[in-house]
Design brief:
Elements (H helix, E strand, L loop, with lengths): L14 H10 L6 H16 L2 E11 L3 E9 L10 E5 L2 H8 L4 E4 L1 H7 L3 H6 L4 E8 L5 E9 L6 H24 L1
Antiparallel strand pairs: 1-2, 1-6, 2-3, 4-5, 5-6
Helix pairs in contact: 1-2, 2-6
Length: 178
């Protein structure tokens, strides 16, 4: 893994990867090109894993429908795939209160994901779901990173949140076009 070790409280990023991402993102012509740049950065900094973006398609009092609009592993998690989530602590935290969710270890994944068998079979052991929010604070999409290690450092969570914010305008533009 190419991850830079700087300690849990400090985020250290490779300058050449940061410069490349800053050059690529403003020039991205669509969501796919922006996300491919973000995925290259994610892999270089955080190592193997899965990155997806889900659009909050519809919300009712009892259910929230999500649609996958980007995936780093489209064979396992195809773009266009949908899932309906009932109201749980996870949906209320992430999708209604727009708060980041961190799940670490198989038990945490089992508690929130119906497809935990596929997730674990891919060697994934932890997740960070970052809400992408409008100016009013409401969640319109989620930026999701799953990793092969059981725990995220504070630096990992910071990098994932920063990356989510960097791609937020691209996701927002894509969602508004559809």
């Amino acid at each position: 893994m190419n991850k830079v070790q700087c300690g849990d409280a400090t985020v250290c990023l490779p300058a050449e990867r940061c410069l490349a991402l800053c050059q690529q993102l403003p020039r991205a012509v669509d969501l796919d090109s922006a996300m491919r740049s973000a995925e290259q950065f994610r892999q270089a900094v955080l190592g193997n894993g899965l990155m997806t973006v889900n659009w909050v398609h519809s919300v009712s009092a009892e259910r929230i429908k999500l649609q996958r609009i980007w995936s780093s592993m489209p064979q396992e998690y195809p773009v266009g795939g949908t899932k309906v989530k009932v109201m749980t602590d996870w949906t209320r935290q992430l999708l209604l209160r727009s708060e980041t969710f961190v799940g670490e270890g198989t038990a945490a994944l089992e508690a929130v994901f119906d497809d935990v068998r596929l997730i674990v079979s891919m060697g994934l052991r932890a997740v960070v779901n970052v809400p992408l929010v409008r100016q009013d604070g409401s969640c319109f999409a989620t930026f999701n990173v799953l990793g092969t290690h059981e725990r995220w450092t504070a630096a990992d969570r910071g990098v994932i949140s920063l990356l989510a914010e960097l791609v937020r305008p691209h996701v927002a533009a894509h969602v508004s076009l559809n």
